[in-house]
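Sample entry (305 residues):
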Amino acid sequence: MSLVPTMAHGDHVASEDRVPEVIGGRRSGAARFFRRLPVRILILAVLVIEIYPLIWLVIGSFKTQSEFLNDPFWSLPSSLQWSNYSEAWTTGNIALYMRNSVVAVLPALAFTIIFGTAAGFALQVMVWKGRGFVLLLFLAGIMIPGQMILLPLFTIYFQIGLTGTLWPLIITYTASALPLTVFMMATYFRAVPRAVFEAAAIDGASVLRSFVSIGFPMVRNAVFTVALVQFFFMWNDLLVALTFTNSTDKRTIQVGLLNFTGEFGATQYGPLFAAICINVFLLLGIYLVLNKRIMTGLAGGAVKG
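Predicted structure, serialized as C-alpha cells:
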C-alpha cells in the first residue's frame, strides 16, 4: 500500500523537473532561430536576386510588342504569345546561330581537353629538363588580356584567308583556354600517386599507354569539370565572336542576340526574350545534367591510397 503514494510522488517530482527543461529547450531553440535569422534572410535575398530575372525573362517572352512599349515592366501578359518562340527560331535565325555556336565550340573544346590533358600529364608526371619553365610559360598565358591579341589575330587570319569562316573562333577559343586547362590538369595529376605510373613503367607500358590507359581515366572527373567550365566560357563569348564573324550566316548565338531584329529592322522584344530564354534554359539544363554526373563521379571514383 505504501508503494502507490511513493510512485505518485516520484512522478510529480519528475514532471516538475521536466518543466524547466522544456522551457529551457524552447528558449534555446528561439535563440538559435534568431541567431540564424540574418543568414536565412541573406540566403532568401540571394535567391530572389537569382530567380527574379529568370521569372521576368520568362514573363517577357510571352508579351506582345505593344505590351512591352505601353505597359509597366512588371505587368503580366494578357495572353501567352507562344508565337514569339517560333518567330525567334525562324525569323530570328536562332537555329542558325546555335548551330554556328555548336560548330565553333565543340571542336575547340575537344582540342582544349586533348591538348590540355596531355600537356598537364607531360608537365606533372613525366620527368624532363625545363618542364618548370614551360609551366611558367603557360601560366603567363593566363595573365595576357584577350583584348590585346584580337587585332594581331585578325590581321593574321585575314592574311591567311581564314576570315569568313568559323576557324578563327575555333583557333582562338582553343588558344585562350589552353593555359588555364593545362594548369588545372597539372594540378589534378599532382594528386595521382606516382607509384601508379612507376608500376606501369615497370610492367613495360609506354608513356602513351600510361597516359591513355591510366592517367586519363584517373582524372576523367577533373576532365568533366574543366570541360564544363570551358564550355560556358566559349559558349557565352561575345568579344571574340563579334570580332571575327563578319557575315550574318556565321554569327554565334551571343552575336545573334546582340543584333536581334525583326522583319523590318526594329527590335522585337517578345521574340528577343524568347530567344534569350532558349539560350539560358538550354545552358541551365546542360549544367544540371553534367554537374550531377560530375558530383556522382567524384563521389564514386575517388582514388584510394
